Amino acid sequence: MLSAESIEKIEYELSKYPADRRQAAVMSALRIVQMERGWLSKESISEVAKYLRIPEIAALEVATFYNMYDLEPVGQYKITICTNISCMLRGSDEIVEHLQHKLGVGFNEVTPDGKFCLKEGECMGCCGGAPLLHVNNSEMHEFLTTEKVDALINELNKG
Amino acid sequence: MVKTSNSTVNGRPVVKTDLAGQTLVTLRTLTEENPAALATYEKLGGYAQLKRLVTEKIKAPDIISQVKLSNLRGRGGAGFPTGLKWSFMPRYYDGTKYLVCNTDEGEPGTFKDRDIIRYNPHQLIEGMAIAAYTLGARVGYNYIHGEIWQDYEIFEAALAEAREAGYLGENLFGTEFSFDLYAVHGYGAYICGEETALIESIEGKKGQPRFKPPFPASYGVFGKPTNVNNTESYASIPWIMQHGGQAFADLGVPNSGGSKLFSVSGHVEKPGNYEIKMGTPFKELLEMAGGVWKGRKLKAVIPGGPSTAVMPASAIENATMDYDGLSKAGSSLGAGSMIVMDETTCMVKTLKRLSYFFYEESCGQCTPCREGTGWVYRIIERIVDGKGKMEDLDLLTDLSNNISGRTICALGDAAATPVLSFIKHFRPEFEYYIQHGKSMVDGK
User: Fold this and answer.
1) A85 vs B145: CB contact, 8 Å cut-off?
2) Which residue among B2, B114, B182 places its CB closest to the CB of A126?
3) Measured between CB atoms, does A61 come within 8 Å of chain B?
4) Minimum distance, in Å, between the CA of residue B243 and any CA atom of chain A
5) Residues 6+ apart with CB under 8 A from B34
6) What are phi and psi of B273, to 5 degrees?
7) Residues B166, B182: contact at Cβ < 8 Å?
8) Is the pTM of this model over 0.95?
9) What is the rounded distance in angstroms from the CA atom of residue B35 to the CA atom of residue B56?
10) N or C: less crowded end of chain B, CB within 10 Å?
């Protein structure tokens, strides 16, 4: 069952499109459900499809096409670090190494306590602030240094 | 390094470059505190042009002729003349016409539109409203890159402000003109920067580009006539309406009107966005960005994002930053996304990362791109792993030439460009890597 809060947000997204174009809201609906539940299970995707009255395959196609949907659990904090050219030129490899060492996980792995997951990201369009990462698809951290990364992880560990 | 003013937007400090020497058009609110606020934009004359055009019932052809006169060319990278594009929209159409803004910046090194939506969102809204009035579009969408959620929220808030103030919605300024504008959030797909993939995505589908023709002007969002422009293009419109097309053209050089945002990243002291006149010498821009970092020498520059050819220092040093200037020097302006590389950069490893990007982001629709980008990546990976063969270089060239021009959209060409240009300009580095199994530059 989608929560009342999710439904309210999905309805807001639906209001952006003509009434007979409910599929247009599928990307935001999947995002809303993922933000609430942490990741998208097959069941979650089916629920979104049912609510929008579109074929399940149409929702699944979208969920599997776009990189930011998580089809497996990603822990409490998903940390996606960009390693593309502008970040690479400014030391993202060093940040990646530091994070992997600090958290004890490689890319696409979740820490045993379920707190963190590390992902390699593609260009996030903020290259002036390279190297950078974002947390849970929403919070951008730029001009990274290993010290800044330590402070961030400590902060998240408290939460 | 980067100047952070006292001002904040949505609780986060404003990050901007030194504005001295810049000619601000789309980021003109950056001189003010609270750059994103409606009151700030109004203070600088914001929304006055929309009001004037709508209430004085200025005719569409008159507006389009000013845009043509301005020499504004599409800022998303293709450089197609905006006024000409506008003239493709059907004048008389029985039904809803749409307006789409492409804020899906995913081309590595491109981060200019992000600053427009977070620091001057109202100028974009006004530009889109003027375009809607001109083209008879009733509804607009601004499609925003997935990763910049916080900036998406700033834009959503600006839309609410504009609606509240009567700049969006029904019967604006008491006239028959109505325009609704909405923000749409992407979720991680480079390909959606391609306009027809973006349209598919707005419709709630996989972002796979459509065959053209039909072009969006006749068959766009929900199959309706649609005008698609880049964020910076729309945001230039209010300035053009205020000062006239000729004044905008005069900021630049022939064939490249206006000033333009250049996103400078990589090995410079002061990365960031610089809004400067078209035709500015490369050397001046590099100097504004603090020069090559750590006192090192310049090795190469990708002037407009990886889908434009890499240029060795000698080729770009005397070039000017405009369409013709960069094309004469052997590359192109693209989206003005300048990636600077110093003398310590290994071009083989850099190309490996770029080719992985295109392999990862190919939408999978066309075989030459889907398969070819994977082959290209695996061959370069093999070279970096010390298992390359000399004939790989010709194979890479041959493969890339067979991707280019054989796909529905331009991603195929974009994927081929770095491979062809890196090998062309830095062939000895690739040969050394193959012969020695390690980099000529860093010895690793």
Assistant:
1) no
2) B114
3) yes
4) 30
5) B7, B8, B9, B40
6) -95, 135
7) no
8) yes
9) 29
10) C
